[in-house]
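queue> pop job 88
queue> type: inverse folding (structure -> sequence)
queue> payload:
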C-alpha cells in the first residue's frame, strides 16, 4: 500500500496486553514513515511514574483520565501510528478520539498473550490471581469493544512483527473510504 492513500490519517492499534501493539506499531510506522507513539509511555513520561506506580498510588480511575488526556492530545497529530493501552476501548469518550484515525485490533489468542506476559511484571491488572484466567476474562469482557475497530488482524498463525505489519498494510486499502 502507498502511505499516500492514508492521507496522513493516524493509525490506532488496539488490543489486549501482550498483543504486540508496541512492537508491531514501531515496525508499521517505520514502513510508512509515520511517527510512533505509545500512550502508556507518554503517560509515564508526563507523570514521571511507572504505570504500576500510578495504579498503586493514584488508582485506576486517575490512570484512565490521564489516558484520555493523552489520546486527546495525540489527535492533533497526523502521520502517527499510536499503540494504545489495552483498556482504552472501554470508555466511549475515547472512541470520539480514536475515530479520527483508523482503528486496528490486533486479535491474539489468549495462549499467546499468556506466553508473552508470564514473566512480565509491568501490568497492574495482572498482578494477582491466575494469569490465564485473568486474560481469558478480560478478553471476554472486552471483545465487543475491540470489535468496533475498522480492521481486525488475527495474529494467531503469525508472530513475526514484520510480516504482521506487511499484512496490515495490505489490508488497510480494503477499509479506506
Ligand atoms: C491495560 C493495559 C496496559 C496499560 C495498563 C492497563 C489494560 O497497556 O495501559 O496496565 O487495561 O489492558 P498494554 O496494553 O500496552 O499492556
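queue> result:
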Amino acid at each position: 500500500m502507498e502511505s499516500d492513500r492514508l492521507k496522513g490519517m493516524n493509525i490506532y492499534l488496539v488490543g489486549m496486553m501482550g498483543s504486540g501493539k508496541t512492537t508491531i506499531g514501531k515496525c508499521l510506522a517505520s514502513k510508512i514513515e509515520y511517527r510512533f507513539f505509545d500512550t502508556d509511555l507518554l503517560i509515564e513520561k508526563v507523570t514521571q511514574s511507572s504505570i504500576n506506580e500510578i495504579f498503586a498510588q493514584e488508582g485506576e480511575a486517575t490512570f484512565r483520565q490521564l489516558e484520555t488526556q493523552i489520546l486527546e492530545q495525540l489527535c492533533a497529530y497526523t502521520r502517527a501510528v499510536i499503540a494504545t493501552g489495552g483498556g482504552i476501548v472501554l470508555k466511549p469518550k475515547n472512541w470520539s478520539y480514536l475515530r479520527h484515525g483508523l482503528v486496528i485490533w490486533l486479535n491474539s489468542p489468549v495462549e499467546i498473550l499468556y506466553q508473552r506476559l508470564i514473566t512480565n511484571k509491568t501490568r497492574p491488572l495482572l498482578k494477582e490471581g491466575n494469569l490465564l484466567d485473568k486474560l481469558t476474562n478480560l478478553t471476554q469482557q472486552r471483545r465487543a469493544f475491540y470489535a468496533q475497530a475498522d480492521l481486525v488482524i488475527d495474529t494467531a498463525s503469525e508472530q513475526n512483527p514484520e510480516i504482521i505489519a506487511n499484512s496490515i498494510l495490505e489490508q488497510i486499502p480494503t477499509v479506506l473510504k
